[in-house]
């Protein structure tokens, strides 16, 4: 298994949102988190990514297996598209960004400062970053926000080839990516019944 989550309880803003969350993801597998707004999908992804502690339960993953793409793009606006990708490649000890440029059709934008990209183009750059991490498990929070139909298809193709190469993905998305191989985890039954109050993650704003 690339990721195993067992009996996890998580909170946001001191309020328990989900409890008893258990699932595992193997190589080649994609799992889509489903549930209404506010149920705790972002909180779950952040917890699995190690950005906040769990209240209870276990998360098992190889320490260098994860790459997280959340709501904020983490793109450096004064650097060009190529420079951004090179920067991330360096961080992850990789050198080749050509696949990332091609997969998200960023070649025509390669020299443009990222700050001048449109919202959808920025998103494509944010997702292209995944391809230079070399990480096995992609954690994706609403990855298709701002993407048009063509870019959604690019993203779906990137996921497919990642899975085919032995990678895996855990994602929150409201749209159907047309990934037949993806499994769905409905978080509805895991909604917390016993809210607790503490303030350990008040920096989560
Ligand atoms: N600082 C905070 N203090 C208290 N509650 C918060 C705080 N931030 C978020 N919440 C609540 O925590 C719950 C979980 O939020 P989360 O973003 O994980 O949900 P989500 O399933 O990702 O939602 P969406 O589909 O809208 O993105 C929500 O009900 C939200 O209102």
From TrEMBL:
<feature type="domain" description="ABC transporter">
    <location>
        <begin position="3"/>
        <end position="205"/>
    </location>
</feature>
<dbReference type="Pfam" id="PF00005">
    <property type="entry name" value="ABC_tran"/>
</dbReference>
<protein>
    <submittedName>
        <fullName>Heme ABC exporter ATP-binding protein CcmA</fullName>
    </submittedName>
</protein>
<dbReference type="InterPro" id="IPR003439">
    <property type="entry name" value="ABC_transporter-like_ATP-bd"/>
</dbReference>
<keyword id="KW-0472">Membrane</keyword>
<keyword id="KW-0067">ATP-binding</keyword>
<dbReference type="GO" id="GO:0016887">
    <property type="term" value="F:ATP hydrolysis activity"/>
</dbReference>
<dbReference type="GO" id="GO:0017004">
    <property type="term" value="P:cytochrome complex assembly"/>
</dbReference>
<keyword id="KW-0813">Transport</keyword>
<dbReference type="InterPro" id="IPR027417">
    <property type="entry name" value="P-loop_NTPase"/>
</dbReference>
<keyword id="KW-1278">Translocase</keyword>
<dbReference type="InterPro" id="IPR005895">
    <property type="entry name" value="ABC_transptr_haem_export_CcmA"/>
</dbReference>
<keyword id="KW-0201">Cytochrome c-type biogenesis</keyword>
<dbReference type="InterPro" id="IPR003593">
    <property type="entry name" value="AAA+_ATPase"/>
</dbReference>
<dbReference type="InterPro" id="IPR017871">
    <property type="entry name" value="ABC_transporter-like_CS"/>
</dbReference>
<keyword id="KW-0547">Nucleotide-binding</keyword>
<dbReference type="GO" id="GO:0022857">
    <property type="term" value="F:transmembrane transporter activity"/>
</dbReference>
<dbReference type="GO" id="GO:0005524">
    <property type="term" value="F:ATP binding"/>
</dbReference>
């Amino acid at each position: 298994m690339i990721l195993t989550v067992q009996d996890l309880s998580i909170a946001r803003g001191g309020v328990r949102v989900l409890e008893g969350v258990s699932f595992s993801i193997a190589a080649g597998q994609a799992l889509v988190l489903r549930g209404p707004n506010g149920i705790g999908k972002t909180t779950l992804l952040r917890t699995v990514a190690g950005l906040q502690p769990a209240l209870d339960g276990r998360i098992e993953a190889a320490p260098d297996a994860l790459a997280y793409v959340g709501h904020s793009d983490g793109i450096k606006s004064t650097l060009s598209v190529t420079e951004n990708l090179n920067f991330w490649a360096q961080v992850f000890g990789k050198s080749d960004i050509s696949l990332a440029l091609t997969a998200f059709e960023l070649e025509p934008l390669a020299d443009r400062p990222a700050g001048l990209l449109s919202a959808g183009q920025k998103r494509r750059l944010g997702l292209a970053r995944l391809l230079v991490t070399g990480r096995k498990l992609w954690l994706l929070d609403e990855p298709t926000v701002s993407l048009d139909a063509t870019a959604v298809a690019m993203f779906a193709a990137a996921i497919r080839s990642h899975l085919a190469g032995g990678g895996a993905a855990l994602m929150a998305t409201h749209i159907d990516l047309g990934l037949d191989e993806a499994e769905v985890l409905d978080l509805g039954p895991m909604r917390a019944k016993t809210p607790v109050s503490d303030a350990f993650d008040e920096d989560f704003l």
